[in-house]
Amino acid sequence: MNITRRGFLKLSGAAFAAGALSDFVGQSTALAAEPLEWRLADVKETPSICCYCAVGCGSICSVKDGELINMEGDPDHPVNRGSLCSKGSAQFQLRNVYDPESGDLILNPYRQTKVRYRAAGASEFEDKDWDWAITEIAKRVKKTRDESFETKDSNGVTVNRTEAIGFLGGAGLDNEECYLVQKLARAVGVTYIEHQARI
Amino acid sequence: MAEMAIFYDSSKCTACKGCQVACKQWNQLPSPLTADKFEYTKSYQSPLETNPDTWVIMTFDEVDQDIGVEWNFMRRACFHCTDAACLQACPVGAISKRDNGAVVIDSEKCIGCQYCTNACPFDIPKWKEADNKTRKCWLCQDRLANGRQPACVTTCPTGALTFGERTEMVATAKTALDEAKAKGFNDAEVYGVDELDGMHVLFLAHRGLEAHGLIRDPKVPDMIELWQLLKPLGGAAFAAVIGGLGISYLTGIGYKREETDESEEVQK
Amino acid sequence: MTNHWVDLKNSDVVLAIGGNNAENHPISMKWVTEARKNGAKYIVVDPRFTRSAAVSDLYGPLRSGTDIAFLGGLYNYIFENKLYHEEYVKNYTNASWLVNPDYGFDDGLFSGYDEAGRKYDKATWQYDTEGETPWDTEGAFAWVNKPGTPAFTTPIGKTPKKDETLSDPNCVFQLMKKHYERYTPEIASAVSGMPIDRMMEIWETYASTGQPGKAGTIMYAMGMTQHTYGSQNVRAMAVLQLLLGNMGMPGGGVNALRGESNVQGSTDMAMLFHIIPAYMATPNATKHKVLRDYLEKETPSGGYWTNKPKFFISLLKEMYGDYATAANNYAFDMMPKLNGKNHSHIAMFEAMNEGTVKGLFLWGQNPAVGGPNCSMERNAMEKLDWMVAVDLWETETASFWKAPTIDPSTIDTEVFLLPAACHYEKQGSISNSGRWIQWRWKAVDPPGDAMDDGEICTEIVHALKDLYKAEGGALPEAITELTWDYMDENDHLDITKLARAINGYTVADGKVVANFTKLAADGSTACGNWLFSGYWTNEDSMDPADQPTGARDNTDPTRKGLDGGMGSHLGWSFCWPVNRRIIYNRASCDPAGKPWNPDKPLFKWTGSEWLSNDVPDFGNKAADGTETKPPNSTAFIMLPEGNARLFAQGMADGPFPEHYEPYESPATNALSSTQNDPAVVVWESASLGTKDKFPIVMSTYRLTEHWQTGGMTRNLPWLVETMPKMFIELSQELADDKGIESGDSVVIENNRGAITALAMVTNRFKPFTINGETVHQVGTPWHWSYSSGCSIGGSANDLTPNVGDANTMIPEYKAFLVDIRKEEV
User: Fold this and answer.
1) Interface contact C389, partner A, CB < 8 A
2) Which residues have C-beta within 8 Å of that of residue A64, sequence separation ≥ 6?
3) Element (H, E) at C699
4) Do C758 and B24 touch (CB under 8 A)?
5) Domain extent at residue C775
6) Cβ separation of B98 and A22 shorter than 8 Å?
7) What CATH number corresponds to the domain at position C707?
8) How much is the mean pLDDT over chain C?
9) What is the total count of domains within chain C?
10) Is B16 inside a domain boundary?
11) In whole angstroms, what is the distance from residue C569 CA to residue C558 CA?
12) Domain range holding B137?
């Protein structure tokens, strides 16, 4: 990857040269500042685009030891120029949160990380693996498709469609994924293909 | 090192709360993980107050009009006063003033006595029971030391928050005041230039201080001044004793959470 | 958006109507603020006093659903005071075109209405023409003769009758003027509830952009579209912009503020029943029995869409590769054909309810919260055999069988909940509202077993291919022959290979094409989406950073000969089409090629060549390829007319926008006795209510702090903290009437359901006076529901009607009726 970065906005003057050691004068004890650890030392920075509204603001993901530790506006982005709204500033939490008890960085407990399956009539999901799920899904698609497939309509026109399968969603996917999903749907013969743009 | 300041211009603020969240993002501040921990505030202002894990909030005040309202926004966080009551109240020297003007609590030294939370005329520092520490905005000293702006300023979409040398920010505030008046905001006022010997967060309140919920003429409580004379006598041990006297009830000047007007109504 | 975010800075007047840009697109305010520094005015027209209204220069309250009364009144004001941009209107719109003398309009109905079928016969809406122009198949259209190009009868253009003086009573200009004479300020105010003085102030301010050189922009969102006449609302804005000469201008245009990060891209990719990628019609068994029919019916006689056969055949070649040949009509039959019925969202759930739809895939969508009348939609899901939900969260849809009051043991639907990667855990491109296709790099691996949607889709395709190869079945070749050659050496999906195929390539050598002008109808090119053509063109690299979509030059230089600084940022990402940042940009200059605003030129004709700050949207190239073709007045190249349409035949419900009332309304239509849009189809399940039982108007909306059905925000503690609970906003007057105080739990109900929300009593809501009567309105966000994350609450869409727009079937979320009461505890 060859990303042009102009770096974060530099402030003028030498005001920030040192770690701001204090020698406050007054009755209160003058304290030396604690050493300031720079959280973004040795991070890998990756540009991203916000997942919420469609302004398309740029952000920078900072990754350390394989984990996301910071995410803020991309100062080089011509639309947002480093700024982000409340939702944009919260993208970090799609993955990680700080535990209120320990303060530790942990995976957002609401993220789904396992394939889950709910059997007919069951009152809970159960964990499954990918191979099982993909195989079972393909079987159901095939069964429903084959049972409902119309090759010709009542006028004898070739229609090659199934009205028994619906596809919904895609406004949160990447363009290339959208292309694939609609391609799959159309190959299956799906006519009920819709997404968020309609509602 | 030059004194620095944030300038908040209410006439440019859309109250998106980017600052509120960006502060938490950068400073690694948690929020509760379960639904029962959140309270309805009857307002777009949420939480109603700063807390140990939320150092910046946006405030919302309404003044009724024939068509619509005046919906007045304000940023509430540490003002980084020169005459800082919290610092003077701290019995253990855990609060210091940096050369750049920031007033910073050293968590290692904080004993959780809450003198500062009671002394602050703005009710900004907040004590956390879980670890018996008090916390507030520290003007992102780590970012400043590394050439960045405070997280709230970096994230502000409209330029309502700007940051720089305090002398420049004072000039910027005065220009913004002239512009606001030229636009017909006759009640516009600048805040923080002289209050408490000069704050390191400056404000343009384009519909006037009261309309935006700012306190006119804030003061360090008298008791704090007396306390300053007593403090060298005994340090932390003394603090425990005097704590029983309850410095808090003598310091009732300025903003207190009990006075929060949840309906967002401000009588004109 | 016809324009883009940064371009807002070039505007003289910014009008937000039916959109709440400060709250829902906060960064837009960076550029509105920039425009205001230069003296621009910011107007907000909205039923609610929003954060946008709070920072506006002028705010006008308007009863939800009365935008056409407001805008129609503005047209009338513009005509009466001759504030339109006359030279622009004459040259760039169809104002001078004559319409069939039998066209008419009477009491809310246009000519040709078929009451039984609830539709129009549009014969009388057509232009009056004289003479015909066939395609020159020896010259410009010689490509139709190339071997491999499917045979079809080429279209014949009709020559219009025009009156350049705009005085013929049958010319569009006169018909339009006459149509809106009824829209007086008094009527517009009585219908919309906007105080007349404020309305006139807004009209005067916005109409000032009709002066040549001035630019006004309109920002809108779902406040415009989510009505039974939403498409006409959008047209009404476009027509306003044409009258004032604002289309194609820097700082102008009609700008849809799209609500999801990639809803522009997912629309471009046609995840919709009625289109296939890049806005071509889905084949239909009635109109398109065979490929020849499709090409004949879908290819217009003029405009850029005359190239459609090239785009269509290239798409088929991408889908079926070598299998698609001239002999088998490029596998045209593999593509499913519609049966003529509507297959949109509302219809899908009706079909599910009837048991037709048995299996459902969800790719990050949550209709159990987001759909109209969503308790009905949840009931429909109970009839499914199976559901596959690909998501980051356990959405209410994936767990619809856990909804309160439901006994899971009675529901036989199998559910597969597949864990998806979030946006920074994968790579790919994403299109913003301004059509910028930006590359998004991967920062970290997805957690646990989570996988990106593309890979999940690929796994399913491979499993299906294996099954159909092994077992056969219905039309197996539709699946077994489907190209899916996007895999890397480890047999994982390689997005970069896929990007090449979407961009398009020449079949013979596999090399990417430079742009869509290189596509052909003879099977020699393949292209997944012609509008994306140009976004991935570097043959020598597979690194996205080396491709137009990954470009990160944020400077703002000129394209050719001008001063730059217009915010075009041509070196940042790729913008469809062909990196053009402002579409219809020819209209930014007068017919002689002189910019209307010489201080902000997009283009300039020097007498011998074109200078430019953007990629031209017009025939500027001479035969030798140089940009030296002299100006003409063809400013709207996508339309056969070459002119923009003040009068449009393509709409289902009339060539001019006409005011009707929402299907649930507290008011009687004051402009005609036709109460509702006459071309709307209503299903019985909508259970419409009346004002005697439900007198209060309700709207649903979004907040800065939350998003859509809440999955992406109610699971994020920081955001929940900034806006923790579901609430209802209501006026002090209504609260007093109902004995409600802030903080009370309020029951909101209508025929479709009942929900509770916490009261927020505020002067930001005020009663309207409509035709002399007091009308209350309330509003709630629609981000909440019964499960998910750290905040649960009432689901506003349990109350919204599943009745849709006459053209698009988007539900009427923005105006419906309810009653409210304090919940007794």
Assistant:
1) no
2) A42, A43, A44
3) strand C696-701
4) no
5) 684-822
6) yes
7) 2.40.40.20
8) 97
9) 2
10) yes
11) 9
12) 4-24+56-62+73-255
Sequence-ordered strand ranges (E) for chain B: 4-9, 57-64, 69-76, 95-97, 103-105, 126-128, 133-135, 161-165, 189-191, 201-205
CB C743 to CB B42 under 8 A?
A: yes
Residue of B nearest to C47 (CA): B68
CB distance B102–A20 less than 8 Å? Answer: yes
Is B36 among the domain residues? no
Residue C753, both tokens:
């359901």
Alpha helix (H) residue ranges in chain A: 86-89, 130-148, 175-188
User: Among residues C661, C695, C714, which one ends one of the domains?
Assistant: C661
Residue B240 scores a pLDDT above 80: no
Nearest CA in chain B to A36: B142
Domain count, chain B: 1
In a domain, B176, yes or no: yes
Rounded Cα distance, C583 and C575, in Å: 10
pTM assigned to the model: 0.94
pLDDT tens, B111-162? 999 999 999 999 999 999 999 999 999 999 999 999 999 999 999 999 999 9
Give me the residue from B16, B37, B159 closest to C26, CB to CB: B16
Q: C228 and C102 in one domain?
A: yes
Complex ipTM value: 0.97
A157 touches chain B (CB under 8 A): no
Closest residue on chain A to B143 (Cα): A38
Chain C residues within 8 A of B263 when measuring between CB atoms: 742, 761
Yes or no, beta carbons of A72 and B96 under 8 Å apart: no
In chain A, ranges of CATH 3.30.200.210 domains = 44-107
Sign (positive or negative) of CA dihedral C76, C80, C84, C87: positive
Q: To the nearest whole percent, how much of chain B has pLDDT over 90?
A: 81
Residues from chain C that touch A198, judged by Cβ atoms under 8 A, are 272, 344-345, 808-810
Are the Cβ atoms of A53 and C708 closer than 8 angstroms? Answer: no
Nearest to C460 among A51, A138, A196 (CB): A138
Cα separations in angstroms, B105 against B123, B149, C63, C95, C237: 15, 19, 51, 70, 55
User: Is the CB of B145 less than 8 angstroms away from the CB of A19?
Assistant: yes
Enumerate neighbours of B (3 or more CB pairs within 8 A). A, C
Angle B186-B189-B191 from CA coordinates, rounded to 5°:
175
Q: Is B47:B57 a contact under the CB 8 Å cutoff?
A: yes
CATH number of the domain to which B228 belongs? 3.30.70.20
CA pseudo-torsion sign A74, C425, C713, C765: positive
Phi/psi at C733 (nearest 5 deg)?
-65, -45
Q: Check C717 against B30: CB less than 8 A apart.
A: yes
Query: Which residues 3-32 in chain B show a CB within 8 A of chain A?
Result: 4, 16-18, 20-22, 25-26, 28-32
Residue of C nearest to B28 (CA): C718
Q: What single-letter DSSP state applies at residue C545?
A: G
The pLDDT of residue B232 is: 55
CB contact under 8 A, A99 and B30: yes
Do C653 and C793 lie in one domain? The reply is no
Cross-chain residue pair C367–A190, CB shorter than 8 Å:
no
- Tens digit of pLDDT for each residue in C424-480? 999 999 999 999 999 999 999 999 999 999 999 999 999 999 999 999 999 999 999
Indicate whether C650 and C737 sit together in one domain. Answer: no
Nearest to B142 among A24, A30, A36 (CB): A36
Q: And the tokens for C290? A: 């065979």
Nearest-Cα distance to chain A for C216, in Å, is 20
Q: Name which CATH class applies to A44-107.
A: alpha beta
Domain presence at residue B143:
yes
CA distance C414 to C426: 28
Q: Alpha helices, DSSP H only, in C629-773?
A: 717-722, 732-738
What distance in Å separates the CA atoms of residue C251 and residue C367, rounded to the nearest whole number? 36
